[in-house]
Write a structure and sequence with these properties.
7 strands, Serine Threonine Protein Phosphatase 5, Tetratricopeptide repeat, about 10% strand
Length: about 475
């Protein structure tokens, strides 16, 4: 091979390598649309302004505002996405691109830099024994915050691709449940049919026979391997049903699994979390008491499983049993001193009681024992913040003032939103009746809308922690 042929071969290899690298960078493992709340708020304000302009006779500008509100902004919301390529989370779309041009900073977070993942559940509908949940997952790290809301297959695909790559100490209990049991509704229905789980109507009719069947089953206690395998499948199905909101069927699945595995601490804990979900959904104090009892029973049978004991402690905190939860978390630390979730939860409990020294202690120990750099960075940042609050009275006063203002701003925003809606209703009624009433309604709506926008901007500004002044 001569020099020219060697040069051409190397050039071809370089081009193919560049193409492969570009393909890897552009590869999307999962993507989900950003929550359109901000876009909808701007669209609502733009629509209101177009109505005011239309009343003043400025038809062209009003038409432009309507086009922006109902054509441009929905298109921008549709194109604004959070993309995961297997290694990084990034926000893509026209608005993030404009923000990058203005600030020079990209919203991009690698898996290794993720510090915490928290998931909250909001009930949207409730019918019989079924509850429709909407999950909101917040991913934080290096000062960036990605919020992903459920609502379709894209969310489920994102969670299935992202969450298994994260360290267990970075995720809370609900996020861990989504990682292990989130699946399509069709899969849950298929598993229910395969295991011959009864419908909610049948479960209601058979409720009176449950206790006698439990006694007869426990009296036998001679289960085959097929029974044990079925119990494991019922346990998995119960968790899947709970996540999709079919609580009554989930309770039946857990009950059948507990007939075979009555001493399994993990199963008892999961059953307790189901009871807590039912108690919250249906405001049933009796179910909450049963959930607390289940958690305490699971704690006595958890043995030396630090992760399970920590999860039981977190669940007890959600139930309001603070002292038993604190004992459980300390027990988890005695088994595994590197349990970061237990230390973070203990720090939160100490913060509720105003014990800043304990908060600092827990975060300092968490930073020293953390095996992950992101967790250590997060713990050091929290420890420094609370240490500054503990040592600097002026900084403490500034932060207390900021939090007080933030509460007042949140209250003002809620009142302004309600007043805006009521004023628009009055204006529309007055439009068909008295013109003076309509004018008063539009004036009140305009003033309250301005107050709502200002409160929204102030709330975002006050959400950030104040930076301390440099020492003189």
């Amino acid at each position: 091979m001569n020099d020219n042929e060697g040069f051409e071969a190397l050039k071809t290899l370089a081009q193919s390598a560049a193409l492969r690298e570009g393909a890897v960078k552009l590869r999307r493992v999962a993507s989900v649309r950003v929550s359109p709340g901000g876009y909808l708020a701007v669209a609502s304000v733009s629509t209101f302004c177009s109505v005011l302009l239309l009343q003043r006779g400025n038809d062209q500008l009003a038409l432009m505002m309507v086009v922006v509100a109902w054509l441009v902004l929905p298109s921008l919301a549709f194109l604004d996405r959070i993309v995961f390529d297997g290694h990084h989370l990034a926000r893509r779309g026209p608005m993030p691109f404009l923000a990058w041009l203005a600030t020079g900073r990209r919203e991009r977070l690698s898996i290794a830099d993720i510090e915490r993942v928290d998931t909250s559940a909001v009930r949207t509908l409730r019918s019989g024994g079924r509850v429709r949940y909407r999950y909101r997952t917040q991913i934080m790290g290096k000062g960036m915050n990605f919020v992903i809301a459920s609502g379709g297959r894209s969310y489920r695909r994102m969670m299935r691709q992202l969450l298994p790559l994260l360290h267990d100490q970075k995720v809370d209990g609900r996020t861990q449940e989504l990682r292990d049991h989130l699946c399509e509704s069709s899969v849950v229905v298929g598993n229910s049919r395969q295991l011959h789980l009864a419908s909610p109507t049948v479960l209601d009719n058979a409720a009176s026979q449950v206790r006698s069947r439990i006694r007869s089953k426990r009296a036998a206690e001679n289960y085959s391997e097929d029974d044990l395998e079925r119990a494991v499948q019922l346990r998995r199905l119960g968790n899947q049903l709970r996540i999709v909101g079919r609580l009554r069927e989930a309770r039946e699945a857990f009950r059948r699994a507990l007939l075979v595995l009555p001493r399994d601490a993990g199963l008892i804990c999961e059953f307790g979390r189901l009871l807590r979900s039912e108690a919250s959904a249906f405001a049933d104090e009796r179910l909450l008491l049963r959930a607390r009892a289940a958690f305490r029973l699971a704690l006595t049978r958890a043995g030396e499983d630090s992760a399970l004991v920590s999860l039981i402690g977190e669940s007890l905190v959600e139930c309001g049993d603070i002292r038993p939860a604190e004992r459980a978390l300390y027990r988890a630390l005695s088994v595994d001193p590197r349990n970061f979730r237990a230390r973070a939860e203990l720090a939160e409990l100490a913060l509720r009681e105003g014990k800043l020294a304990h908060v600092i202690h827990h975060y300092r120990d968490g930073a020293q024992l953390a095996t992950d750099k992101a967790l250590a960075r997060y713990a050091n940042r929290e420890a420094d913040y609370y240490a500054r609050l503990n040592d600097d009275e002026d900084y403490l006063a500034v932060e207390l003032r900021r939090l007080g203002w933030l509460q007042n701003v949140s209250r003002t925003r809620r009142i302004a939103a309600r007043l805006t809606n009521a004023s628009i209703l009055v204006a529309l009624i007055g439009y068909y009746g008295d013109a003076t009433v309509a004018a008063i309604g539009w004036s009140l709506a305009s003033s309250s809308l301005v107050a709502w926008v200002l409160a929204l901007l102030a709330g975002r500004a006050l959400a950030e922690r104040c930076k301390p002044r440099p020492a003189e």
